[in-house]
Every structure is written in structure tokens, then in C-alpha cells.
Amino acid sequence: MSPALETKGLGMRYGRAWALRDCSVRLPAGSVIALVGPNGAGKTTFLQLVTGLLRPTEGTVEVFGQDARAGSAEALARVGFVAQEHPLYPGFTVADLLRMGRSLNLRWDRPLAERRLEELGIPLAKRAGDLSGGQQAQVALALALAKRPALLVLDEPLASLDPIARRDFMRTVMAAVAEDEITVLLSSHVIADLEAVCDWLVLLKDGRLQLAGEIEDVLADHRMLTGPRTDDEPAVPGLVRATHSDRHTDLLVRAATDRPELHPTWRSHPVGLEELILAYLEQPTEIAR
Amino acid sequence: MIWLTWRQHRAQALAGLALIGLTALVFLPYGHAIRDAYAQHGVGPCLVRGTGGDGCQSAMSTFMSRFNGIANHLLTWFTPVPGLIGAIVGASLLGREYEHGTWRLAWTQAVPRTRWLTDKILLVGLGIVVITASLSAVFGWFRSPIDDVSGRFSPGAFDLEGLSLTGYTLFAFAAGVLAGLLFRHTVPAIATAFAAFMAVRLPVEFWLRQRYQTPATRLLPPTGHWGSVGPMAVPITPGTPGWTLSENLVDKTGHPISAAVQDQISRRTQALGGPAADSYLRGLGLHLKVVYQPANRFWTFQIVEAALFLGLAAVLLGVSVRLLHRRSA
């Protein structure tokens, strides 16, 4: 399968600080990819490198085999982007924004955008600045989808929305995925929003890639081992994180084996996505490498 | 891009048109008043006959004292205007996109950002040219009777007529675009661009402009009216007045006379007055040495000054496009 997105040794430095370093991933076309990490992990930097808004300090980004750094009209036309806080020109009416989209794009599906907005009851004559946050997000999404992009990139799309607006927003995204088989890459620090809709996971922390893979495989690869409390770090291959409670020690391990070389009192059980992500994000960075 | 640029800058364009309208509304009636006085004082015939003696000198002085001050006040408060217009329009071009975060919307459509910026610069620049050229036309018409007397080198004429107003505004615009790119905020970008504009504009007017070409020199028979220099001086020589840089009494060999002697002579001529003073000076064998930029150099100077500011504008805009290209894709 040809990748929708491929990065090699991707790095971005602002002044002296690296926001992203040494990031190499291949993300398959047709998937819905969750980019997860705490605030400041480099998610926005990664997405802006993918959309060509930033030029990498080192490494390469290819979107459908085309260098994102080129910033050509054709490369830009393939990617739909809704930035954090879904910025719109506040003085423009919704109709103005649609007209802007038409005049700045190679492909423009105006009926699609108008139909979506009509279904949502967003009037075209209203100024963007007068819309609610949820409506603004929907307008920004409609603009991105009207480009008929092959890759839709959403930066923290749900962060500023109330629960109903979140549900509506994700519904629109998933309808587009079902209809047009587009690839979606979305970032979030809220894991619950993503579990139901994403099939791929990319985990970033402190500008480093921690984990990337299909969620099913990732879950299958990890086991939680629970046994009697041990105070020293147990030497288990593929240990991600150890947590100790009063009587037990929990070990998250990344290993294909279901039978670790441990005392028979240790029990092994599958791990949930949220649990797994939290374990990766809480672990000290040094161990991760 | 044309529609988008219009949509984003239409408020500014309409403000520009309103400024033209307001200027025309104020200065067209006033221009008629000047023309009436021009005819009434007989300034035209005086100019045709050269300086034409004392009657004409006093007619022209009366006319100029009535209008020159007001016409130059206009300049005083209009000097910063091209800088302000240019800085505001220029700084908002990128500053506003960064402030509202809309650069992320604008540059992820299918127009590469360098084209987005060059198209906007060209379209907004064209608007600036149209508006400032119209303002220059209004000012030029309004001032033309005064220019007949004092020439077009006075700052009130030179800075507002011809190409200079357009050149100044485009330069301030370019500084605003670059400042908006660097500061990512509109207000500091406006302040910086305006300061940069004045820092270039004022030394050009007061120091550089008179050096565009080597000035001409003429030796004239001496007159008691000598001593009034500067671009606004009432002419004492026939023909369209140029820009008098200096007027000095010199002796037969062409050397300037000492300050002490000059003082003495000056007191004497004031006591004598009129034709008696002139013949007294002639009797001393003195000449009046006038260093000046001739009136027919007006367009040469306009072109040099416009080229200077347009060149600076082109450099700043080129840097802006290049920085935006390098900053990202």
C-alpha cells in the first residue's frame, strides 16, 4: 500500500529548541490517524510541516509521494487543513469565505460545501465572527472538505468545542471518510474522542516519536502484567512502564510473547488504548528511546 | 486573488477614495479663490514681463503672503500622511493574518504563499498608485498659480505634485509589509514602518534632494532685495523660478565679501531702499551670485526622487517575499 504520508528524519528547530526531532513514519492511505501527545509535544509543528506551513530544519515530508516542502499549488490542493482554533476572517460572511475558497483553489466543490452548511443550519449571510465556536469549526471544515483533499489534516479540532459540537464535527469528518475514502490525520490530547474513530496511532512526546502503528496491532503487541509488588525494576524485555501500588506491581510490556519469563503468579492481560497511551506519556522520556 | 484582495482591502480603498473626495471638496473651491486673486493682483502679466519692477514685486509679494503660508501649511500636515497611509495598509497585509491566525487558512489553499504575497502587493500597490496620483492631481491643480510665482521646487509643491507622493506612499507600504512579516502584529509594524519612513523621507528632503544635480550659478547685477533664499523665495530674476540655494554679494573677481563689509552694506541698502540701493551696490562694483537648481529640472528631480523611493520599496518587498518563502515552503 502506498503511504499517504511519509517522513524521514524529520526535525524542526525554533532558535535553539527542537520542537520535533528525528521523526520517521509511514502512514497508510485511507486510514484515520490520531496524533496524540501532551501539550508542547510537537503535534502542531508536525501538522504544519505536513501542510507545508513550516519548512523542516532537517529531514523530509512526502504527501502522496510529493515533497510537502515544495509548496506547489498541486501539493497544497491535495491537503485540506483546519488549524487550531479553526481561524476564519471574522469580517467575512460565510458566503465570502466560500467565494474565497473557490478563487484560491484548483478544485472546489461548492455544492458540497453549501449542502453541508445548509444541513447544519449555518446561514451563508452571517459574518464568521458572529458564529458560535462549533459553527466556526464546521465552516472551517466545510472549506477544507470542499477542496476535495486526499488528506485532511485537523489540528486539535475538538479542543474548543462543547460535547454536542464535538459529536457533530466528528460526524461530518467520518461522513467524508465514508464517502470519499480520504485519509485523515488529526491531533488531540483527549484520547476518548479518538478511540471510536481512529484506526492508526502516532504518539509524540517532547518532540520525539514514541510509537506509531495500527491501533489493533499496537494493542495486540502490548500486555499488562500484574504480580506481587517488587521494589526493584524487574528485568523484563520490552518494559514500557512499571507502576506500583500497595501490593501489586503493574508492568506494561511491549512483547509478542504472552508468557514472560516470570514467576507463575504473574498474570497477563490485554491493555486498553487509553491505558496504553497514558503509560507511554507518563514514562520518563529517556527510557523511551 | 483579485476578489480576495478587494474583499480584504476594500475598507481601505474606500477610505482612500473618501480622502480624495474630501481633498477635492476642500481644495477645488479654494483653488478657484486663488485663481481669482491671481487675476486680481495681475500676477500673470507680471510673470510674463519678468520681474517687471517694484509694482510687480509688491503685487507678487501680496499674492504670495496671502496664499503661500496656507499652501505650505497644507504640506506641513500632509507630510506624514503618505507614511501613515502606506504603513497602515502595508502592515495590515501580513500583520492582520498573523494576528487572527488566518495565515494558516490563507496559505493552505492552493495558492502558494509567495504568489499570494506578490499578487497582493501588486494589487494593493496599484490601488495606492491610483489614489496617490489622484491626490497629486488635486494638489497640483490647486497649487498651480502659486507654483507660477514660486516654482515647483518648494516642498509644498515638490512633495505633493508629480510622482513623489506616490513614491513615498509605496515606500511606506513596503516598509509596512516587511514590518508586518517580522513583528507578526499590526500596531508595532505600523509604528516601525512609519518611523523608518520618516527617517528616510526627512533627510532626503532637507539634505539629499538639492544634491541630485550640480546646481547652476549665475552672476546678476546686484539688487537691494537680495538675501531671500530657499525654495519658497519670491523670485528676483526673470523666468520661471527655480530653487535658489544661496544668494551672495561677490566682488569683481567673484570672491564673496567679508561678513563685516556685508553687514555694513546691508545697513546702507536698507537706509537707501529701492532703486537707490541697487545703484549704490552697482557703484561698489558688486555682483549677486546666485546658486540654484533651474526650474526646468523639476521633472528630472521628480524622477530621481521617485526612483529612489520606488527602488527602496522594491528592495523591501523583495526581501519580504524572500523571507516568506524561506520561512516555510
Short recap of the structure:
Chain A has 289 residues and is of the alpha/beta class.
Features:
A: 289 residues; alpha/beta; Rossmann fold; four-stranded antiparallel sheet; B: 329 residues; mainly alpha; 2 domains; 12 helices
What does this structure look like?
The complex is a heterodimer of chains A (289) and B (329). Chain A is an alpha/beta fold and 289 residues long. Chain A has 2 domains: 3-206, Rossmann fold (3-Layer(aba) Sandwich); 218-288. Chain A has helices at residues 43-50, 73-77, 94-104, 110-119, 133-146, 163-180, 192-195, 215-221, 273-282, 285-288; strands at residues 3-14, 17-28, 32-36, 58-63, 66-67, 79-82, 151-154, 183-188, 200-205, 208-214, 222-228, 239-244, 248-254, 267-270. In chain A, helix 6 (163-180) links the parallel strand 7 (151-154) and strand 8 (183-188). Chain A is elongated, with a radius of gyration of 21 Å. The model of chain A has no long low-confidence stretch (mean pLDDT 87). Chain B has a 3-stranded antiparallel β-sheet, with no helix packed on it. In chain B, helix 4 runs antiparallel to helix 6 (113-150), helix 8 (164-183) packs parallel to helix 12 and helix 10 (259-272) packs antiparallel against helix 11 (274-283). Chain B starts with a helix and ends with a helix. In chain B, 39% of the residues are buried. The interface between A and B is medium-sized, with 38 and 25 residues.
